[in-house]
Amino acid sequence: MSLLSLSHLTVRRGCCPVVDDVTLTVSGGEFVGLIGPNGAGKTTLLRAAMGLLPHDGQSSLAALPARLRARAAAFLPQSREIAWPVSVEALVELGRVPHPGAGAEADRQAVDRALARMGLQGYRGRIATALSGGEQARVLIARTLAQETPLLLADEPVAGLDPESQIRAMQVFAALAAEGRAVVASIHDLGLAARHCTRLVMLARGRLVADGAPAVVLTPDNLAEVFGVRAYFAQTPDGPVFQPLGVIR
């Protein structure tokens, strides 16, 4: 089932397109890695898809009323600022705001599940602003998970996390997809993207240049053209391994 449909989505700054005529569909069961160099339009695409930026073309999410959109998709922005010294539990509970009629027990269980997925059960009573940057990032992911939407859009969710936390977060997103939900996440680490995503969407200068399985998208030609690098790519019993080796331009 389609959970996100973009048709000729275009976002302009002045007369310059930042996202240029992007059409794609995301279905349940997919973990889509949105990749591309800095300035490729990844953040803009995610924000426009959520209806947070003016755009031309169509987004199935942006077309929804705000109340329904909050139940259809959760959005994790790149910014990780936590403004108030609240407990981790209280912060994660904010993910339940779109579900006012769910009931206290359903809300508690959703928060418990989110904390458990992110390995934060022991952080429940700690003050969120007193945590490290990486710990705060995990709490904000948990808040998004507590929203329990069919679709999750995340902008660089694993940036700045230590290797273990990066892998665990990617495993959580992959598990959501395996449960029938969908995740679209912008990711700079191509190795993590290759290892955990079911599909990669590659952007360059705002345009979609490749879309498919990691082995199909991360070709030598695409890497040279879009990123200007050469890399090692191999399939192993533990999954694909991808490592940039050098700059070619």
Give structural notes:
It holds the Pfam family ABC_tran. It comes from Cereibacter ovatus. InterPro entries: AAA+_ATPase, ABC_transporter-like_ATP-bd, ABC_transporter-like_CS, P-loop_NTPase. With 249 residues, this protein is an alpha/beta fold. The chain has a single domain (2-79, 150-247), classed as P-loop containing nucleotide triphosphate hydrolases (Rossmann fold, 3-Layer(aba) Sandwich), CATH 3.40.50.300. The protein has nine helices and eleven strands. It has a six-stranded mixed sheet with strand order 5-6-7-3-8-9, sandwiched between helices. The chain has a three-stranded antiparallel sheet with strand order 2-1-4. A two-stranded antiparallel ribbon has the order 10-11. α4 crosses α5 (133-146). It is globular. The mean pLDDT is 94.
Q: What summary fits the major beta sheet?
A: 6 strands, mixed
Q: What coarse outline follows from CA principal-axis ratios? A: globular
Which parts are unreliable, with pLDDT below 50 for 5 consecutive residues or more? Answer: none
What radius of gyration results from the CA coordinates?
A: 18 Å
Organism: Cereibacter ovatus
Pfam family, one: ABC_tran
GO molecular function, one term: ATP binding
InterPro entries: AAA+_ATPase (IPR003593), ABC_transporter-like_ATP-bd (IPR003439), ABC_transporter-like_CS (IPR017871), P-loop_NTPase (IPR027417)
Task: For the structure shown, list the relevant keywords.
alpha/beta, translocase, Rossmann fold, 249 residues, globular
In short:
Part of the ABC transporter complex HmuTUV involved in hemin import. Responsible for energy coupling to the transport system. This is Iron complex transport system ATP-binding protein. The protein is an alpha/beta fold and 249 residues long.
